[in-house]
Design goal:
- This is Cytosine permease.
- It comes from Pirellulimonas nuda.
- InterPro entries: CodB (IPR030191).
- The chain is an all-alpha fold and 492 residues long.
- It has a single domain, classed as Hydantoin permease (Orthogonal Bundle).
- The chain has 23 helices and no strands.
- Helix 5 runs antiparallel to helix 13 and helix 7 packs across helix 8.
- It is globular and about 70 Å long.
- The relative contact order is 0.18.
- The N terminus is likely disordered.
Length: 492
C-alpha cells in the first residue's frame, strides 16, 4: 500500500492526499496484490492509472466512511453547542451542507478524476510548474501538521482521564498549555504517533480496519446514553440553543461549515488522487458515507454530550468539557479508548501525509526524516489547545488556503480550449513557475485572510468566493499572458 504513495526517483511532487485513502484498509483487498506490486515502482504517480488498477465501488464507500469518523468529531459537535446553534440550524443545516459536499465530490471532483486519472500533484505540476507545486506542498504539509496536532490534543484529553485533577484539561477558552502535566502528555502521545508514522502506515491501517465501525458505534452509544439519562428522545428540544451560550453561528454558517470543512478535498481537488482509481464518476456518491455517518450522526451525538453536561452538571457551554471526560462519563473506559484510537488513527496518516509533503520539497530527504520533521511540528502544535478548541475556524482557514487551487484545475480542464489558452501550460512550455497561478491563488486568499483577521469574517464562508475568484483570475491572466509554447517533448 505504501508503495503507491512513495516518491518516485526524481519526482518532486508527492501524492500526499492519496495516502490517507489508498493506504486505508478499506481500499485494497487481497485480490489487488498484483496491481499493488505492479505500482511499487511509483508508475502511477506521473501517469494515468491503467484500467487494470481501477477499483470497485465498495472500496470507496468503506474508505470514506472510515476516514470521516475521526477524533475531531468529538470536538466539532460540542463546539456547535458552545457557539449557540439551535436545533433547526444544526439538524437541517448539517443535512444541507453535507449534501452539498457530496454533490461537489460527485459532480466537480469525480468527473475530472476519472477523466484525467492523475494525482492532484502531478496535474498541478503540469499546469503550475514544479517549483510552484513545491510551495503548495509546504502549505499543505504545514496545515496537515496543525490538523494532526488538533487530533493529538483530542487524544490527550482521554489519556489524562486516569490522572484526575493532576492534569488540568483545556477548555474551549484556552489557547495556551494548561500546565506541565498537560505538556508532557501531549509530548508523549505526539512522540508515539510520530514513531508509528515513521515506521509506516501498515499498523495504523490494520487498527483502523478494526476500529472504524466500532468507533462509529461508540458515537451512537454516547448519544443513546445521554438520551436515556435525560429521560427523553426529543432530540430537537435538547439541541435548542443552550442557555448561556453566545450565538456565533446560524443556519448558513452551519451549512457552509459542513460543506467546506473538507473543501481542500473536493473543491481543492485533493481527492483526485483517490478518485482517479474509480471506474466511473458515480463513485463520487461514496463520499455520502463519510458525510452522513461521520459529519452528521457523529456530530449530533457528540453535541448531545455537551448538552447533557450543561443541563445536568451546570457546565458553562462557552468553556465546554474535554471530550475524554464526557465520553468516559457516558460509556466508560471503552469511550476513553475510542477517543484515543480515533485521534491516533487519524493523526498518524495526517503526520505521514505532512511528511511526504515536506519530502516533496527536498528530494534528498528520506521519508522517515520528513515524517519525523512533521511529527515534531505536530507535537509542538498539540501542546497549544488553540488548534483543537478553535477547530471550526481552523478548518475554514485550511479550506480557504488550499481549495482555490482546485479552481485552476477546473478551468484548465473545462475552459482552457474554449477560452483560447493552453491547458497544462507549464508542461508544454517547460516553465517551473506559472505566475498566473500564483497570483490567482494568493490574491483572493490574501484578501480572505485580511477579512478574517481585521473584520472577523467567519472563515467557513470564505472558501467558495476564493475558489471562484481564483478560477476567474487564472482564466483572465492566462488569456492575457500566455504565449503559444514550443511543445516540450513527450507532452501532449
Amino acid at each position: 500500500m505504501l508503495a503507491l504513495t512513495r516518491r518516485h526517483a526524481g519526482n518532486y511532487c508527492v501524492d500526499t492526499a492519496f495516502l490517507g485513502a489508498v493506504a486505508s484498509p478499506y481500499f485494497w483487498s487481497d485480490a489487488d496484490v498484483s496491481d499493488e506490486n505492479e505500482a511499487a515502482s511509483g508508475e502511477y504517480e506521473r501517469e494515468r492509472v491503467p484500467d487494470r488498477a481501477l477499483q470497485g465501488a465498495g472500496s470507496f464507500w468503506g474508505m470514506y466512511a472510515g476516514e470521516h469518523t475521526a477524533g475531531t468529531e468529538f470536538m466539532i459537535g460540542p463546539l456547535f453547542v458552545a457557539w449557540g446553534a439551535d436545533a433547526f440550524d444544526l439538524i437541517v443545516g448539517l443535512l444541507v451542507g453535507n449534501l452539498l459536499a457530496v454533490l461537489t465530490w460527485r459532480y466537480v471532483t469525480a468527473p475530472i478524476a476519472t477523466s484525467q486519472r492523475l494525482t492532484l500533484y502531478y496535474q498541478l505540476e503540469k499546469i503550475c510548474g514544479r517549483d510552484l507545486v513545491t510551495l503548495y506542498n509546504f502549505a499543505n504539509g504545514l496545515l496537515f501538521c496543525f490538523l494532526a496536532g488538533a487530533m493529538v490534543t483530542v487524544s490527550a484529553t482521554a489519556v489524562g482521564v486516569p490522572f484526575g485533577d493532576a492534569v488540568q484539561m483545556p477548555t474551549f477558552a484556552d489557547r495556551m498549555p494548561t500546565g506541565a502535566p498537560w505538556v508532557l502528555i501531549c509530548l508523549a502521545i505526539g512522540a508515539v504517533m510520530t514513531l508509528v508514522a515513521a515506521k509506516g502506515y501498515a499498523v495504523v491501517a490494520k487498527v483502523s480496519q478494526v476500529a472504524a465501525p466500532w468507533m462509529f458505534l461508540m458515537f451512537v452509544a454516547c448519544g443513546v446514553t445521554v438520551l436515556a439519562r435525560l429521560g427523553t428522545t426529543d432530540v430537537v428540544s435538547l439541541l435548542g440553543a443552550t442557555e448561556g451560550s453566545e450565538p456565533k453561528i446560524g443556519f448558513w454558517g452551519i451549512v457552509c461549515f459542513a460543506w467546506f470543512c473538507n473543501a481542500a478535498m473536493h473543491l481543492g481537488m485533493a481527492d483526485l488522487s483517490v478518485l482517479r482509481f474509480a471506474k466511473k464518476p458515480s463513485y463520487g456518491w461514496a463520499s455520502s458515507a463519510g458525510m452522513f455517518l461521520g459529519h452528521y450522526i457523529a456530530w449530533i451525538c457528540a453535541a448531545l454530550l455537551l448538552v447533557y453536561w450543561v443541563r445536568v452538571h451546570g457546565v458553562d457551554p462557552a468553556e465546554g468539557k474535554p471530550p475524554g471526560d464526557m465520553v468516559f462519563d457516558a460509556v466508560g473506559w471503552a469511550g476513553v479508548l475510542c477517543v484515543i484510537i480515533a485521534g491516533w488513527t487519524t493523526a498518524n496518516p495526517t503526520i505521514y501525509r505532512a511528511g511526504l509533503a515536506f519530502q516533496g520539497m527536498f528530494p534528498s530527504m528520506s521519508r522517515v526524516t520528513g515524517t519525523v520533521l512533521a511529527g515534531a511540528v505536530c507535537t509542538i502544535a498539540s501542546v497549544f489547545p488553540a488548534f483543537a478548541m478553535q477547530l471550526l475556524d481552523f478548518v475554514g482557514i485550511y479550506g480557504t488556503i488550499l481549495a482555490p487551487v482546485g479552481a485552476v484545475i477546473v478551468v484548465d480542464h473545462y475552459l482552457a480550449p474554449r477560452l483560447g489558452f493552453e491547458s497544462s501550460y507549464a508542461a508544454k512550455s517547460g516553465i517551473g513557475f506559472n505566475v498566473a497561478v500564483i497570483v490567482a491563488w494568493l490574491l483572493p486568499v490574501g484578501i480572505a485572510m485580511w477579512l478574517f483577521t481585521y473584520y472577523g469574517t467567519p472563515p467557513y464562508f470564505l472558501p467558495l468566493p476564493c475558489w471562484i475568484a481564483c478560477g476567474v483570475i487564472y482564466a483572465l491572466l492566462s488569456k492575457l499572458t500566455q504565449r503559444r509554447p514550443a511543445v516540450v517533448e513527450g507532452v501532449q
